[in-house]
Amino acid sequence: RDFPILGESSLKAAKAALAVYMINPNKYIDFYYAALNHKQQFNDESILSIIKSIGIAEEDFKVSLAKNADAIDKMIQSTRELAQNINIRGTPAIIVGDTFIGGAA
Protein backbone atom coordinates (compact mmCIF):
# COMPACT_ATOMS: atom_id res chain seq x y z
CA ARG A 1 0.00 0.00 0.00
CA ASP A 2 1.06 3.56 -0.59
CA PHE A 3 1.73 5.22 2.76
CA PRO A 4 3.11 8.74 2.32
CA ILE A 5 4.67 9.78 5.62
CA LEU A 6 7.20 12.42 4.60
CA GLY A 7 4.88 15.30 3.78
CA GLU A 8 3.78 16.82 0.50
CA SER A 9 6.64 15.35 -1.52
CA SER A 10 5.84 11.75 -0.63
CA LEU A 11 2.12 12.43 -1.03
CA LYS A 12 2.74 13.58 -4.62
CA ALA A 13 4.76 10.43 -5.30
CA ALA A 14 2.08 8.16 -3.81
CA LYS A 15 -0.66 9.81 -5.85
CA ALA A 16 1.47 9.52 -8.98
CA ALA A 17 2.10 5.82 -8.32
CA LEU A 18 -1.60 5.13 -7.97
CA ALA A 19 -2.41 7.14 -11.10
CA VAL A 20 0.17 5.07 -12.98
CA TYR A 21 -1.38 1.87 -11.63
CA MET A 22 -4.77 2.95 -12.97
CA ILE A 23 -3.25 3.46 -16.43
CA ASN A 24 -1.23 0.25 -16.49
CA PRO A 25 -0.78 -1.95 -13.40
CA ASN A 26 2.41 -3.39 -14.90
CA LYS A 27 4.03 0.07 -14.83
CA TYR A 28 3.37 0.54 -11.09
CA ILE A 29 6.52 -1.29 -10.02
CA ASP A 30 8.51 0.48 -12.74
CA PHE A 31 7.43 3.78 -11.22
CA TYR A 32 8.56 2.68 -7.77
CA TYR A 33 11.97 1.49 -8.93
CA ALA A 34 12.50 4.80 -10.73
CA ALA A 35 11.24 6.73 -7.70
CA LEU A 36 13.60 4.86 -5.38
CA ASN A 37 16.50 6.02 -7.53
CA HIS A 38 15.33 9.64 -7.33
CA LYS A 39 17.51 11.21 -4.65
CA GLN A 40 15.65 14.49 -4.11
CA GLN A 41 12.22 15.55 -2.99
CA PHE A 42 9.48 14.97 -5.51
CA ASN A 43 7.86 17.85 -7.33
CA ASP A 44 5.65 18.03 -10.39
CA GLU A 45 8.63 18.27 -12.75
CA SER A 46 10.53 15.32 -11.28
CA ILE A 47 7.42 13.15 -11.20
CA LEU A 48 6.70 13.91 -14.86
CA SER A 49 10.30 13.01 -15.69
CA ILE A 50 9.86 9.63 -13.97
CA ILE A 51 6.51 9.10 -15.70
CA LYS A 52 8.07 9.69 -19.10
CA SER A 53 11.07 7.47 -18.28
CA ILE A 54 8.79 4.47 -17.70
CA GLY A 55 6.91 4.96 -20.95
CA ILE A 56 3.73 6.66 -19.75
CA ALA A 57 2.55 9.62 -21.81
CA GLU A 58 2.32 12.86 -19.84
CA GLU A 59 -1.24 13.50 -21.03
CA ASP A 60 -2.38 9.99 -20.05
CA PHE A 61 -0.86 10.49 -16.60
CA LYS A 62 -2.51 13.88 -16.09
CA VAL A 63 -5.89 12.50 -17.20
CA SER A 64 -5.56 9.52 -14.84
CA LEU A 65 -4.54 11.74 -11.94
CA ALA A 66 -7.52 14.06 -12.47
CA LYS A 67 -10.10 11.39 -13.34
CA ASN A 68 -9.14 9.17 -10.41
CA ALA A 69 -8.42 11.89 -7.83
CA ASP A 70 -11.23 10.88 -5.46
CA ALA A 71 -10.41 7.17 -5.65
CA ILE A 72 -6.70 7.86 -5.11
CA ASP A 73 -7.44 10.06 -2.08
CA LYS A 74 -9.70 7.35 -0.63
CA MET A 75 -7.00 4.68 -1.09
CA ILE A 76 -4.41 6.81 0.68
CA GLN A 77 -6.84 7.69 3.47
CA SER A 78 -7.72 4.02 3.91
CA THR A 79 -4.04 3.16 4.27
CA ARG A 80 -3.53 5.95 6.81
CA GLU A 81 -6.49 4.71 8.85
CA LEU A 82 -5.22 1.13 8.75
CA ALA A 83 -1.76 2.26 9.82
CA GLN A 84 -3.23 4.23 12.70
CA ASN A 85 -5.41 1.31 13.80
CA ILE A 86 -2.48 -1.10 13.95
CA ASN A 87 0.01 1.50 15.21
CA ILE A 88 2.29 1.71 12.17
CA ARG A 89 4.28 4.93 12.30
CA GLY A 90 6.94 4.40 9.68
CA THR A 91 8.03 2.46 6.67
CA PRO A 92 8.81 -0.14 5.77
CA ALA A 93 6.25 -2.03 7.82
CA ILE A 94 5.48 -5.63 7.01
CA ILE A 95 2.86 -7.98 8.43
CA VAL A 96 3.18 -11.69 7.74
CA GLY A 97 0.49 -13.75 9.43
CA ASP A 98 0.48 -12.48 13.01
CA THR A 99 4.06 -11.17 12.90
CA PHE A 100 4.66 -7.44 12.59
CA ILE A 101 8.03 -6.14 11.39
CA GLY A 102 8.06 -2.41 12.05
CA GLY A 103 9.75 0.33 10.13
CA ALA A 104 11.18 3.57 11.36
CA ALA A 105 9.39 5.39 14.15
Structure overview:
The chain is mainly alpha-helical. It has one domain: Glutaredoxin (3-Layer(aba) Sandwich). The chain is 62% helix and 6% strand. The chain contains 5 helices and 2 strands. Strands 1-2 form a two-stranded antiparallel ribbon. Helix 1 packs antiparallel against helix 2 and helix 1 crosses helix 4 (58-67). The mean pLDDT is 85.
Task: Detail the topology: elements first, then pairings.
Blueprint: H1 8-23, H2 25-36, H3 44-53, H4 58-67, H5 69-85, E1 94-96, E2 99-101
Antiparallel strand pairs: 1-2
Helix pairs in contact: 1-2, 1-4, 1-5
Domain tally: 1
Radius of gyration from the CA trace? Answer: 14 Å
Could you state the CATH homologous superfamily?
Answer: Glutaredoxin
The CATH architecture designation is 3-Layer(aba) Sandwich
Number of helical regions? 5
Low-confidence stretches: none
Instruction: Please provide the count of β strands.
Output: 2
Q: Regarding CATH, which class?
A: Alpha Beta
What is the mean pLDDT? 85
Shape: globular
* Helix/strand/pairing category: mainly alpha
Let me know the largest β-sheet: 2 strands, antiparallel
Give the CA-CA distance, first to last residue: 18 Å
Strand arrangement, major sheet: 1-2
The proportion of residues forming helix, as a percent range, comes to 55-70%
CATH-defined fold name: Glutaredoxin
Order of helices and strands: HHHHHEE
- Indicate the proportion of strand residues: 5-15%
GO molecular function: oxidoreductase activity
Pfam families: DSBA
Organism: Ehrlichia minasensis
Domain DSBA-like thioredoxin: 6-104
